[in-house]
Amino acid sequence: MKKIILAFVLMFGVSQLYAQGMHQGKKMPKMFQSVPVSKAVILQDGKAKMFCPKCGMYLPMFYKTNHAATKDGKVHQYCSIHCLLADMDDKTKDIKVVDTNSLKFIDAKKAYYVVGSSKKGTMSMVSKYAFASKEEAME
For the chain, where are the E strands, in sequence order? Predict the structure, then answer.
């Protein structure tokens, strides 16, 4: 029940930001994982392309933890590794993650993840940020 209430509160808050035009980078909340819409690469299509298909979170708001995968020939973009894993099955392939520094999607198998940094996580209490190189992750 707590998860349902939390999801509703998050969705209401995000939908209010979207409805008020704040999604255009004008008043985006200052969170480490957020980027202005102009810097977010959205890989999926459709009316709801700006939202995580699993939980509905607004993708630019949680962009630095975005993951993407191809499933049944369509690209799905998720707010976090949590939502990717919750939606994953044996048809899921070509998993990508946003590189925290360049903000570009990279192959998740080649990424270096920093787990449990001082930065807030998305969909969990433990942060998980990906980097293109080991040196960047160590930094």
Answer: 67-71, 74-78, 93-98, 105-107, 112-115, 128-131
Following CA atoms 22, 68, 78, 105 in sequence, which dihedral angle do they give, to the nearest 10 degrees? -40
Any idea how long the chain is? 139
CA torsion sign for 30, 12, 67, 45 is negative
Q: What is the pLDDT along the chain (139 residues), one digit of tens a residue?
A: 444 444 444 444 444 444 444 445 555 558 999 999 999 999 999 999 999 999 999 999 999 999 999 999 999 999 999 999 999 999 999 999 999 999 999 999 999 999 999 999 898 889 999 999 999 999 9
Of residues 75, 126, 125, 134, the one with CA closest to residue 101: 134
* E strand or H helix at 31: none
Q: Give the E-state strand segments of 17-104 in sequence order.
A: 67-71, 74-78, 93-98
Residue 137 in tokens = 């992750």
